[in-house]
Amino acid sequence: MTPDSGEWFRQAQYDLGTAESLVSAGRYPPVIFFCHLALEKGLKALYIEKFNENPDKTHSLIFLVEILELELPQEYMESLFVINRIGITGRYPHNLDVVLEQYTKGKTVKILNETKEILTWLTHKFSKR
Fold first, then answer.
1. Tens of pLDDT along 43-99?
2. ∠ CA 33-79-91 to the nearest 5 degrees?
3. CATH label of the domain that carries residue 25
4. To bridge 42 with a disulfide, which of 72, 78, 91, 122 should be the other Cys (CB 3.0-4.6 Å)?
5. Distances in Å between the alpha carbon of 122 and those of 30, 79, 95, 98, 106?
6. Per residue in 87-125, pLDDT tens?
7. Residues of the domain holding 71
8. Short-list 119, 4, 8, CA closest to 53
9. What is residue 30's predicted lDDT score, i.e. its pLDDT?
10. How would you write the chain as a 3-class SS string?
11. What is the pLDDT of residue 2?
12. What percent of the chain has pLDDT over 90?
């Protein structure tokens, strides 16, 4: 593990903790953003390990998985597609009432749990390098 990649993974875990705190506070829409951010940083840590350089500036989880040639389980890929799509939209203002209606506690907790599973999978992949 290079110092840079280790820092990326450390921050991924920190962002995941932020997402958990937001769920506890009942602030559901930004949870999706922090889940996306945690996964993005985890993938970028693997990128640094594999290529020994900083990753391109991208927010696309799918692009990072493809360039890393990761063979994630199908259910993780399906979750990544969803998180990738809705995580990016969370960066831009939308009608708050609509967003609050869309991102219920149940939906948000489901995405958080999927993020934890994927990040655990990435961590195991990372520790094997």
1. 999 999 999 999 989 999 999 999 999 999 999 999 999 999 988 777 777 788 888
2. 20
3. 1.20.120.330
4. 122
5. 22, 14, 34, 33, 24
6. 877 777 778 888 889 999 999 999 999 999 999 999 887
7. 3-127
8. 4
9. 94
10. CCHHHHHHHHHHHHHHHHHHHHHHCCCCHHHHHHHHHHHHHHHHHHHHHHHCCCCCCCCCHHHHHHHHCCCCCHHHHHHHHHHHHHHHHCCCCCCHHHHHHHCCHHHHHHHHHHHHHHHHHHHHHHHCC
11. 61
12. 75
Q: Show the tokens assigned to 121.
A: 């999978």
Whether 6 shows a pLDDT value over 60: the answer reads: yes
Two tokens, residue 82: 């969803």
Q: Name the one residue in this structure whose structure tokens are 């350089």.
A: 53
The domain tally of the chain equals 1
